[in-house]
Write a structure and sequence with these properties.
Blueprint: E1 4-12, E2 17-24, E3 28-32, H1 39-47, E4 54-60, E5 64-69, E6 74-75, E7 83-86, H2 98-103, H3 113-121, H4 137-150, E8 155-159, H5 167-181, E9 187-192, H6 195-201, E10 204-209, E11 212-218, H7 219-224, H8 229-234, E12 239-247, E13 250-253, E14 258-261, E15 272-275, E16 280-282, E17 290-292, E18 297-300, E19 304-308, E20 314-318, E21 331-334, E22 340-342
Parallel strand pairs: 3-9, 3-10, 7-8, 8-9
Antiparallel strand pairs: 1-2, 1-4, 4-5, 5-6, 10-11, 12-13, 12-15, 13-14, 15-22, 16-21, 17-21, 18-19, 19-20
Length: about 350
């Protein structure tokens, strides 16, 4: 039997109704969305920390295990679900040492050699007798993951595990976490509002907004063709405008007062376009989709220039750390295939 995690849940919340339905067959799933959209509530419903109002959560491995089924009145306790939950603050016990924290999820019948195995696997040798307050953020994360994997969960849930970290530590631990989970044979789901985390970590992606899934599929596909305005925004598209359709392949971007040629025939449901800030390139007058850069402003960042055209379009241009001079070209262009057609 192929492995399958099925989640189909509904829950009435204060601001909106949560309605999430997906199946995960392999790999790492990301749930991307703004704060307060229902991401963490979805994780907690899978883990059994909160109860949905209705629906089903089940896991098929060698046999089917139903975690929750409102129609059959099944609701397994969190301890019975074999789900590991990595909280934002890691939730280590402050009065326990590293090895005690790792061992605390094991039963009396479990092999105590598992703790030693996890110490070695997560590179925690020499830290066994230390307490959480004596560990770095990265070491705390490794202890929390070691504690989860010690009892061989079927599912690992990651609740914005990098949200409280500075940029350097975040990037370092993100890579480390991906490497640690490469050999994990179960399912992993990470919720985040950070598009870079979602892109780097997740094989598949769900985009959640106000409790509803507005996009799901392969992560690369969603970033390349977000299809909807809100999905484009959440995946980092900086330039979005409502449009007026001129003909099958030409539109006027009302936000910027510019007419563009597009590569794909415009269907009646298209209401906006998006252009990612890195999609522009220097051009000659008369090129397709050319823009005059007169009266543009530029802002220097460590590794890129941020250029704002007079009409509000935003261009990002990569630079080296030691380069501090940049002449804005007279004209920019965007390839028709790099103009994203969007529905409201």
């Amino acid at each position: 039997m192929d492995k399958l995690l099925k989640v189909d849940i509904q829950k009435k919340l204060k601001e909106f109704d949560l309605n999430v339905n997906f199946e995960l067959k392999k790999g790492r799933l990301g749930i991307l969305g703004p704060s307060g959209c229902g991401k963490s509530m979805t994780l907690k419903s899978i883990a059994g920390i909160v109860d949905p109002d209705s629906g089903v959560v089940s896991l098929n491995t060698d046999e089917e295990t139903v975690y929750y089924d409102s129609s059959k009145k099944i609701n397994l306790k969190p301890q019975k679900r074999h789900v590991g939950y990595l909280f934002q603050n890691y939730a280590l016990f402050p009065n326990m040492t590293v090895e005690e924290n790792i061992a605390c999820g094991l039963s009396k019948d479990d092999d105590k050699g598992i703790v030693s195995e996890m110490i070695k696997r997560f590179h925690l040798e020499g830290l066994e007798k230390r307490y959480p307050r004596q560990l770095s953020g990265g070491q705390q994360q490794r202890v929390a993951l070691a504690r989860i994997l010690a009892y061989s969960p079927d599912v690992i849930l990651l609740d914005e595990p990098f949200s409280a970290m500075d940029t350097f530590l975040k990037e370092q631990l993100r890579i480390e976490l991906i490497n640690l989970l490469k050999d994990f044979d179960g399912f992993s789901i990470m919720v985040t509002h950070d598009r870079d985390e979602a892109f780097q970590f997740c094989d598949e992606l769900i985009v959640l907004d106000k409790g509803k899934i507005i996009a799901k599929g392969d992560t690369y596909d969603i970033f390349e063709n977000p299809r909807k305005v809100q999905v484009a925004r959440l995946t980092g598209c900086k330039n979005i405008s409502e449009i007026e359709v001129m003909d099958d392949y030409h539109i006027k971007a009302l936000e910027w007062g510019v007419t563009f040629e597009v590569a794909e025939k415009i269907s009646p449901n298209i209401t906006h376009i998006g252009i990612r800030a890195h999609s522009f390139s220097p051009a000659e007058e008369g090129d397709v989709n050319v823009l005059d850069t007169k009266d543009s402003t530029k802002l220097e960042m460590p590794f890129e220039w941020e250029i704002t055209l007079a009409n509000g379009l935003w261009w990002k241009y990569d630079k080296a750390i030691h380069e501090h001079e940049f002449e804005i070209p007279d004209y920019l262009k965007v390839d028709p295939k790099n103009i994203i057609l969007l529905e409201e």
